[in-house]
Amino acid sequence: MASNRTAPHATLPPQGVPHDSETYVGGEGAWEEWNPTEESVRPVRGRHRVAKQRGGLGRSSTVLGVGVIAAVGAGGIATAQDKPAISISLPDAIADSLPDAKSLPGVGTLMSDDAESASDSGSGTGEAVVAAAPLTTAGVTTADARQGTTDAGEALRARILQQAEQQQAAADAEVQLAAEKEAAEKAAAEAKQQQTAAEAKAAEEKREAEEKKRQAEEEAERKAEEERLAKLAASYSMPLSSYTLTSTYGQAGAMWSSGQHTGLDFAAPTGTPLKAVHGGTIKSAGWSGSYGYRIVLELSDGTEIWYCHLSSMTVTSGEVGTGDVIGRVGATGNVTGAHLHMEVHTPDGAGVDPAAWLRGKGLSV
C-alpha cells in the first residue's frame, strides 16, 4: 500500500504563545513550520486511480451512498441531498478488493446503463430520472419522482405514516365492528327479553280476561237462573205453609213395600190445608189403598203430583190454580201419624225426588 512519511511530531507552544507562530523555538519539543519536499516525502508506490464520476459520485462514493441509504432507512429523515457530493480516491489494493456497486442489494438498479446514459444525455423516461438521481432517492418511486418528491427520507416517512394510518384504521374498524356486534347482540338479547316479558304479560292478561269472562258468564247465568226461578216461584207454591220433613225420597225401610220411600213426607196436624203447587187439572181423587185418600194433580206438561193420606178432599175434579186449597192433611192408609205423602211422576211415569223438583221451580224446601 502506498503511504507518505509520517510528519515530524509537533508540540504545542506554551500557554500564551500563538499557535500560528512560525518563530517559536525553545526547549525540548520546540517546533517550526514543516514544508514537505520531494526529498522528505517517500515516493508513492503504485498508481492512483480516480473512479469515473456518475451523477456527481465516484465508485467509492457508491459505498458511502449505501451507508447513507441505510441511515435513511433507519432514521427515516436522513438525506444526502443536503450535502455536496464527495470524491474519494483509494489505492488500487483497496479499490480492487471492494465489491462492485451493482452487486449490492437495492443499488444495482440505480447504476444501470440506461440510467447512466439518461444521466449523460440529460433526457429520458421518469424511471431513468429516478435512477440518475442521488442515491438518497432509493425509497422514491416513479410516481414520487413525477410528483417532485425526491427525498427518500420523506418518502419513506410518508409511507410509514400511511401504513401506520392504514393499520390504525383497520384496528379502529375491527374495534368498531366488535362494538357493533356486541351492541347488536345486546340489543337482540334485550329485545328477546322484552318479547318474552310481553308474551308472558299478554298470556297473563289473556288468562285474567278469560277468568273475568267466565266469572261474568257464571254471574249472568246465576242471575238469569234466579230470575227464572223467581218467575217460577211466582207461579209455583209449596203444598203446606208449615211442616216438618220426616222422610225423604229413596230412604230405605221395612215399612215401605218397595223397600224404600218413594216420596217426601211433610208432617203436620190433621186438617192442615193442602195447596196446589201449580195450576193444572185434577186427574183423579178418591181412596187408593195404602195411600189412603189421594188426589192426582196433572200439570200442563204431563207431570203428576200425588197428594196422599188425606183426611178430606176439597176439589175432586176440574181446573185449579197455583195455591188453591184442594184437600187437608190426614192419617188415612198405611201411616204412623198425620202427614202429607207427596210424590212427583214425570210424563213417562217415572218417579223423581219431590224436594229436587220443588227446588227446580224456585221453591225452598
DSSP helical segment count: 7
Quaternary assembly: single chain
Percent of residues in helical segments?
25-40%
Query: What ranges have pLDDT less than 50 throughout 5 or more consecutive residues?
Result: 21-30, 55-60, 76-80, 121-136
Give the topology string: H per helix, E per strand.
Answer: HHHHHHEEEEEEEEEEH
The overall pLDDT average reads 75
**Strand content range:** 5-15%
Structure, described:
This protein is of the alpha+beta class and 365 residues long. Among the domains are: 1-45, no CATH class; 59-150, no CATH class; 244-360, Glucose Permease (Domain IIA). The protein is 37% helix and 15% strand. Strands 1, 2, 3, 4, 5, 6, 7, 8, 9 and 10 form a ten-stranded antiparallel sheet that branches. A hairpin with a 4-residue loop joins strand 5 and strand 6 (304-313). Helix 3 (113-121) packs across helix 4. The termini are far apart.
Short description:
The chain is α+β, with helices and mostly antiparallel strands and 365 residues long. It has 7 helices and 10 strands.
Features:
Cell_wall_metabolism_enzyme, alpha+beta, M23ase_b-sheet_dom, 365 residues, rod-shaped, Dup_hybrid_motif, 7 helices, metalloendopeptidase activity
